[in-house]
């Protein structure tokens, strides 16, 4: 019994370290993919967006409107969701489940075409994303939710 306890005492830190290594690698990969996805949304790179969004995506816009994957991609195609620029202000990725699940939260600034009166159309958003790593498809966004932030007063 003592030998088993000694073995467990030795192995537990090793196993915990190995798991955190997988989570660390997943964190870096998901952060890179988040930035690529924002770029793909601006450039309308539908092939990449098809790959990065899961088929069961739930995409909740900052106004509360909810889309599935097909609806959201169509909204970009139809010009309902237009992004001139997406700037990442803050990005925090936490990996779980041995590097197979990631929860992301951050702050972005989205610049869209000017309003009809010519004023800039800029939105400051806080958002949460859940990504899951599929053995065949890689990392995919299964959930997006954002909330508009008040304009900074000068």
UniProtKB/TrEMBL annotation:
<protein>
    <submittedName>
        <fullName>Nuclear transport factor 2 family protein</fullName>
    </submittedName>
</protein>
<keyword id="KW-0732">Signal</keyword>
<dbReference type="Pfam" id="PF14534">
    <property type="entry name" value="DUF4440"/>
</dbReference>
<dbReference type="InterPro" id="IPR027843">
    <property type="entry name" value="DUF4440"/>
</dbReference>
<dbReference type="InterPro" id="IPR032710">
    <property type="entry name" value="NTF2-like_dom_sf"/>
</dbReference>
<feature type="domain" description="DUF4440">
    <location>
        <begin position="33"/>
        <end position="141"/>
    </location>
</feature>
<feature type="signal peptide">
    <location>
        <begin position="1"/>
        <end position="18"/>
    </location>
</feature>
């Amino acid at each position: 019994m003592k030998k088993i306890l000694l073995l467990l005492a030795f192995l537990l830190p090793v196993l915990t370290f190995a798991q955190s290594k997988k989570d660390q690698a997943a964190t870096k990969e998901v952060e890179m993919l988040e930035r690529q996805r924002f770029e793909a949304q601006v450039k309308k790179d539908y092939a990449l967006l098809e790959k990065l969004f899961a088929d069961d995506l739930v995409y909740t816009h900052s106004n509360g409107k909810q889309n599935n994957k097909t609806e959201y991609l169509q909204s970009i195609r139809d010009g309902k969701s237009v992004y001139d620029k997406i700037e990442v202000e803050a990005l925090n990725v936490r990996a779980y489940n041995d590097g197979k699940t990631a929860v992301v939260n951050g702050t972005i600034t989205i610049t869209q075409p000017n309003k009809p009166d010519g004023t800039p159309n800029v939105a400051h958003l806080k958002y949460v994303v859940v990504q899951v790593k599929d053995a065949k498809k890689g990392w995919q966004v299964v959930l997006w939710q954002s909330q508009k932030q008040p304009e900074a007063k000068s």
